[in-house]
């Protein structure tokens, strides 16, 4: 197989990071301007929570569609389409004048929110298994950095141009990024980076097959990963959607205090994502279970640290609270890059987008109710207690399911490696 120039690999990763970073900022701005939106449309917390839930439901449904499209057609073209949809739907939410119209427009942004599996599938074909965790970690850090970028945009522009024009700005950026993807990113033969196939001069074209997808039921690791995914996004959705309001309302922090606290937390979260991916790569070379052991460790530590942080007394100084939050944030994304790499480690190349889409579909079905559920509980017991209940319970469940996945993953990785060797032998036999 022809070697890909390092410079082009760097360009590819840079484009993917740009897409995900700007998209995450656009997606997360709603949490920073939620108080403004509530005032403009006279919404209570339950109605505000429905804004986040609507987008999650639409995104969950569209994951299955995007997974099929990415495995069936050219992935860069599909990703460019997602970027254009991002620009259009965000702009529609900016011009909505009634709450039903705004809710419908904001929910439609879930269409492009479910477009990431194609990116990770391309990464799996540009980079070999032993380095995917690190690249996935770099892509995962776009979520926390995007959160900081959304904060910066709101703090710098909300008072000048208002939240509606901020959405018009980020929507326009989606169109620009789509152009870069359409003309700059090349597709890659599925399976190109697999150890058993990458030495071949010409790799057959592998595309979506229902038989390959249905055969994934034999991969026992995928079921506990799906179960932990159902609960795993709850804490992150709760934090990204409600935490800004929590710091203002429950802790009494103003924007001058909130920004450095959240910035420190996001820096630690970003470092944690890259560290987790790198550790996953390193330990996977020693053991088939290595990636998921790293993921389980991160979940376990988060399960302990998050309640401790939220239970700090209201009079706790911002410095101490920020330190605890930063320590917690370091472990929040430990599972993300390793779960993605593990799914690619146990699934055939032609259905990797679909397999990851099913994972994300289940995650979003579980998380779709998180913003609304916290808002509903908040009306009864307060926002702080609502966040603690929802995030704490789901973290415990995630840890239990991740430990089940650790038990089965080695067998499933060996099964895929055997399948790839068989394909290589068949190709060599046909070519004589």
Beta-strand portion reads: under 5%
Largest sheet: none
- Which fold name fills CATH's third level, the topology? Growth Hormone, Chain: A
Number of discrete helical segments: 18
Number of domains: 1
Mean pLDDT: 86
Low-confidence stretches: none
Q: Judging by the overall fold, what is the CATH architecture?
A: Up-down Bundle
Offer a few descriptive terms.
432 residues, 0% strand, Growth Hormone, Chain: A, single chain, mainly alpha, 81% helix, 18 helices
Task: Write a structural description.
There is one protein chain. The mean pLDDT is 86. It is built from 18 helices and no strands. It has a single domain, classed as Growth Hormone, Chain: A. The longest helix is centred in the last third of the chain and has 49 residues, at 383-431. The protein has helices at residues 6-32, 34-41, 45-72, 75-95, 99-108, 110-113, 117-126, 129-140, 142-184, 210-214, 222-249, 255-286, 290-310, 318-332, 336-346, 352-367, 370-381, 383-431. It has 432 residues and is mainly alpha-helical. The protein is 81% helix and 0% strand. The chain is globular, with a radius of gyration of 21 Å.
